[in-house]
Amino acid sequence: MGVVVKVPGGWDVPGSEEGWAGERGAGGEGQCVVPFPGPQGTMAEARQAATFRLDLGQGTPGRRWWNPALKEVGSAGLRSWRRSLAQCKDDILSGACPAGLASGLFLFAAIQGSRFMQLDPSLGLVDWIKASLPDWGVRWLPGFQGAVAATIFAGGLWTALLLTLHVVLRLLLRYQGWLSEPRGTLSLPTRSWLALVRIFSGRRPTLYTYQRSLPHLPLPSTVGTVAKYLESVRPLLSDEDFQALSSQAQVFLHTEAPRLQSLLGLKAWWAANYVSDWWGEYVYLRSRSPLLGNSNFYILDFLSVAPTPLQAARAGNAVYAMMRFREQLGRGEIEPATLLGMRPLCSAQYRQMFNTTRIPGVSGDRLYHVRDGCSRHVVVLHRGRFFRLGTHGGLGGHLLSPRVLEQQLQYILDDSAPAQPTEEHLAALTAAPRALWAQARASLQAGDRSSKAPLEVVEGAAFFVCLEETPGPSRTSPELDERAQSVLVGTGHSSGHMGLNVEHSWADTPVPSHMWEAILAAECFELGYAADGHCRGTPNPTVGPPERLLWMLPEEVAASIPLALREAQALARDTDCHILPFTHFGRGFTRRCRIPGSSFVQLALQLARFRDQGSFCLTYEACVTRSFHEGRTETVRPCTVEACAFVRAMEDPRLTDAQRLALFQVAAEKHWALCRAALTGEGVDRHLFCLYLVSQLLRLPSPFLTQVRAERWKLSTSQSATHQPQLFDPASHPDYVCCGGGFGPADDDGYGVSYVFMGESMVTFHISCRVSSPDTDSRRFGQHIQDAMLDVATLFGLGAGPSTRARPGEAAREASRGPEPQQAPSAPRDLEY
């Protein structure tokens, strides 16, 4: 038995290998202070970025070159301002600002009270405002004009206070010195900065308190970006190829770059973020490839434990916890995510976590969002049948209890009515190429009410739940692989566990990951289960059963379903997933080595990939840029000259461990320098992406940018969001720790690798590749990763030779006892996110 939850609500779901189309939430749309060592970002974006192409044709020289680009820049700015103004009212009413509405009311009462006591804290301004007011003919109402004047003064004073707090916070949040602090120490400037941020943030900052105070993403110089790009590809090119590329880059800097950069600078000044809206639009929403295994990513629950064997009970607690989380989001009660416990991150992505669906279009998709009050149901899919499950009931419209939700879900499981022939594989359409799904959806929309009504129910749901029939649980390692395969592309196995399949365009991995951890913590430690495995509480027989959605499909839609199903099944069969629980050591060991965990793993991955393929490749590592307003991600390129030198040293028997360790420390420092650059908006790839997009909008061909866009990412990596210490305690409850998630490979001949630090002594790797590629094998690469991690640990004094590998339990105990590894002389501080 298993439950697969799709976040947020939408129904782009693939067909499984067994033919149960739609038994996954794989394309719909849709936390907190957590430890975070190094870059952490999204999962499946590398493939979307690599396959992005935009060809608007080529124009002729003249003033008309500027028209399409200026129009796009102007539209981006207007969209940004409209979003900001639309959110302003909600933020003030919910107190999402350093000085909330309550402070405004208090200030108003204080001004009015001082007037009653014949005091004038306005220094005569209230009297001046009163004298300036028109005569409204209310002389019979004494003090009316004075009250109005005092109200105007209080409102102006409160507005000035808000603006002052925002300006001061924005200036404070530009400080980046904390990124260079050594572990275990904070300089006086950083301590002062933290204290000032705390003071100007108010007593209880909410999720959106910092939104308007976050700095804008800076626009790097083209000279600096091109220099960093050339440095990143140097180890991958021959001397002749590198010289040719360098010459091409110099031509670009002196010809196309000034014009492109000036227009991009205009957007950086005019819009909230010069990257994010174009990134979402052109990389995700305009992609015509199937979402299945390409854009979507998955998150699992626990490695082995299942809190209850009852499928409906787990689903009931999960639905209740997620709907309650949605209510907390609406009230702004979720704590803002931060770095270092105080550096706030952008929370814009949370606004579309629920009630959001990616609507397909012929040339581009769009995100459809409904307000919480208009979406009081979820859609459940079981054995090809769709059900509308109302989540609220009673006179007050309160959220149903977990036990009542379990009762409703059990009704669906017990319903033996078969799916209609045309309905059974209907959801496979959402795993088809986007143009095919758009045409099918348009036919549904053009039909009568019987075909449109179920579609409206599905697209208006808070989120999507899939219930599947599977064998009993297993604790073997292949079972983990089956779970990953099941949630990512659909194979019909979940073994008593839950999983989350998330469409990527609306948000990056940390946002749904933090929500998912909150759901798992609530399920296990707060809501819990009765002794018989059911949800706590009592059923309510007065609540009616869920509503079965009945579809009347036009002929053209029915004809498209077999085509979509075959493509979905082919994609599923061609995706290979492997989960490697690395139990020898974890963050505790890397911390004692004074090496950031991400740098340690990334260099081990370079060593593993070299052993697997015998060569180096362009490597993608996602890194968040949410410290800026509406920030999303940047790319770190870990395959550096220093990393390659270290890898070659590891394979050279003539060198000593001391020499290898020295090269490792140089490579780790280089990697962390790249991470710092990406975190502070000084990365390479997003700037080049925007320059390329502007060149296409200008119809100005650029051979250099075309060469950049042709690169293949044969190793795509991401660090999954790590655990929230206030929710999980790996030391006390080692089985109840989220094991992260993964994504498909960015290149058909490459690997996709996601990893998560599970407590102090474990790292879990999620590896994927294509079955059809003769060069890749996920399990072989997993073994190379394990060997590389142990070999690198040997340099720091952890016995990781052949004898240790034969006794993994002993190695884990040795790491957990805390050996005294050789330390880097100066190590950067691990971030807390």
From TrEMBL:
Keyword RNA-binding recorded: no
Entry's localization field: Membrane
Gene3D superfamilies linked: 6.10.250.1760, Chloramphenicol acetyltransferase-like domain, Choline/Carnitine o-acyltransferase, domain 2
Active site: H504 (proton acceptor)
UniProt-annotated stretches for the region Disordered: 800-833
Taxonomic lineage from the root: Eukaryota, Metazoa, Chordata, Craniata, Vertebrata
SUPFAM superfamilies (UniProt xref): CoA-dependent acyltransferases (SSF52777)
Cellular component GO terms, alphabetical: membrane; mitochondrion
Major localization class: membrane
InterPro entries listed in its UniProt record: Carn_acyl_trans, CAT-like_dom_sf, Cho/carn_acyl_trans, Cho/carn_acyl_trans_2
Organism encoding this protein: Phascolarctos cinereus
Keyword Signal: no
Protein name: Carnitine O-palmitoyltransferase 1, brain isoform isoform X2
Biological process terms in GO annotation: carnitine metabolic process; fatty acid metabolic process
Domain Choline/carnitine acyltransferase positions: 217-786
Molecular function terms from GO: carnitine O-palmitoyltransferase activity
PANTHER family: CARNITINE O-ACYLTRANSFERASE (PTHR22589), CARNITINE O-PALMITOYLTRANSFERASE 1, BRAIN ISOFORM (PTHR22589:SF55)
Family membership noted in the UniProt record: Belongs to the carnitine/choline acetyltransferase family.
